[in-house]
Write a structure and sequence with these properties.
By secondary structure, the protein is of the alpha+beta class. The protein is 33% helix and 27% strand. The protein has 2 domains: 1-32; 45-193, no CATH class.
Length: 194
């Protein structure tokens, strides 16, 4: 009679493979940290909502005509009225557009930055910060919209009156065209959860 020990070897092999597989799964779970900021379906949904909210604000305020006057709310000493040289730090600018940003975003605990991009005469793209409420998180969303400025657009003073035309003013965006076009700017609103 021949004795067959292969069954025991296969059983031992199967048990060892199972233990290795279990140890691998346990190790993988221990090295993966799940935090409140870990991406998930719900956080992606929130990011999408914030992006749509920012896009909606830009679209509505472009339609209402409040963004270009805010862009022209410029103190010829080199900054927006009431702002530091690097923008507003406590909320939106004191204009109709800034009020909508504050009411729509800040009151919902959504922080935002507003950047203005423009082209220099040499073709380089530059950025000027209008609102700086901090550093955006990794899960920030962005909305942008372009606006055309013309030579005869006028700088706005704090009291609501108008000043010099852009072609005769000291403005941060340069005149890049010989015709009536002054420049095309892109307004970017970056939003993130506080």
């Amino acid at each position: 009679m021949v004795r067959d020990d292969r069954g025991q070897a296969h059983a031992l092999e199967a048990i060892t493979a199972g233990m290795l597989l279990l140890a691998s799964v346990v190790f993988a779970l221990q090295v993966t940290a799940v935090t409140p900021l870990t991406g998930s379906t719900s956080s992606q949904h929130i990011e999408n909502q914030q992006a749509k909210l920012a896009e909606g604000v830009l679209a509505a305020e472009a339609e209402n005509g409040t963004i270009v006057p805010t862009l022209l709310y410029w103190n010829e000493s080199g900054r927006f009225h009431g702002a530091d040289s690097d923008g507003y730090h406590s909320g939106g600018p004191p204009t109709a557009f800034g009020n909508v940003l504050d009411q729509t975003l800040r009151e919902r605990n959504i922080a935002f930055d507003v950047n203005v991009f423009y082209i220099r005469a040499n073709g380089e793209r530059e950025r000027h910060q209008m609102v700086d409420l901090g550093s955006p998180s990794d899960h920030a969303s962005t909305a942008t919209r372009s606006f055309t400025l013309y030579d005869d657009d006028r700088i706005r003073y704090q009291n609501g009156s108008v000043g010099a035309t852009l072609e005769n003013a000291s403005y941060f965006v340069p005149d890049v065209d010989d015709g009536p076009l002054y420049n095309v700017v892109e307004v970017e609103v970056v939003v993130w959860r506080m």
